[in-house]
Design goal:
The chain is globular. The strands form five sheets. The protein has a seven-stranded mixed beta sheet with strand order 3-4-5-6-7-8-9, sandwiched between helices. The chain has a three-stranded antiparallel beta sheet with strand order 12-16-14, covered by helices on one side. The chain has two domains: 3-145, Fructose-1,6-Bisphosphatase, subunit A, domain 1 (Fructose-1,6-Bisphosphatase, Chain A, domain 1, 2-Layer Sandwich), CATH 3.30.540.10; 156-250, 3-Layer(aba) Sandwich (D-Maltodextrin-Binding Protein, domain 2), CATH 3.40.190. The longest helix has 25 residues, at 3-27. 31% of the residues lie in helices and 31% in strands. It has 254 residues and is α+β, with helices and mostly antiparallel strands. It contains seven helices and 16 strands.
Length: 254
């Protein structure tokens, strides 16, 4: 498969997983706890089975690292190239009835997120991006190109995780920056809003895993932004425990 075909595959599976999640939501579901006490639902499992199965059938040579499989102790052998899947990013908000949840499918090569697709089931939006080839969005309207925007002279629109919005590190980080608005937002939807130029900055102080960020990083960087750790170094993949450091998602490149 070409890289363009791999992105189309990721986007199609993310879209289909989003439809499956909506089906579970309509039918009703129980909220359970994993060993780490994070929440999980039938929607997570159904979506992951659909995506992981689809990826393995279409690209058997590319390992799949999927959140719920990892939680269950199924650790794949990864290589230079592997998929990262978060079947339902924002499960906590999904369980509370919020619409701010997403499906993320990213591809890593040589420690870098190179392409990614994110579906937002509640709105019907699907985003895709591939390094060097740009980013796009589709919903009720056909697929069209999207891009980040330059830092606005009137101040930045900052997205803050609902869970970590009151983190004491946020104020010092924003000090000295012109901020027009700080807006709470959950899940990988934040990456989508930066990629399409609806927001400018997303600092994340708090734990994330590689499957939380791979698709979003590829999308934002394909759209013209960047994602780094708090020291300005590009966020890399293939860490032994899959854990990310704190990071910042910018809609512009300095």
């Amino acid at each position: 498969m070409t890289d363009a075909e791999l992105l189309d595959l990721a986007a199609d599976l993310a879209r289909r997983a989003g439809h499956a999640i909506l089906g579970v939501k309509r039918a009703g579901f129980a909220v359970e706890r994993k060993l780490d006490q994070s929440v999980v639902t039938e929607a997570d499992r159904v979506a992951e089975a659909l995506i992981a199965g689809g990826l393995r059938a279409a690209t058997p040579a590319i390992p799949v690292v999927a959140e719920e499989e990892i939680a269950a102790g199924h650790i794949p052998s990864t290589a230079h190239r592997y998929w990262l899947v978060d079947p339902l990013d924002g499960t906590r908000d999904f369980a509370k009835g919020s619409d701010e949840y997403a499906v993320c499918v990213g591809l890593v090569e040589g420690g870098r997120a190179v392409l990614g697709a994110i579906a937002v089931p509640a709105t019907g939006e699907v985003f895709g991006g591939r390094l060097g080839a740009g980013a796009w969005k589709e919903d009720a309207a056909p697929r069209r190109a999207i891009a980040t925007r330059p830092a606005p002279a009137g101040g930045l629109v900052v997205l803050a995780s609902r869970t970590y919005a009151n983190d004491p590190r946020m104020a010092p980080f924003l000090a000295g920056r012109a901020v027009a608005e700080t807006r709470p937002c959950s899940s990988a939807v934040k990456f989508c809003r930066v990629a399409e130029g609806a927001a400018d900055l997303y600092p994340r102080f708090g734990g994330t895993m590689e499957w939380d960020t791979a698709a979003g990083q590829a999308l934002v960087e394909a759209a013209g932004g960047r994602l780094t750790d708090t020291e300005g170094r590009p966020l890399r993949y293939g860490k032994p425990d899959w854990r990310n450091p704190d990071f910042v998602c910018y809609g512009w490149v300095e």
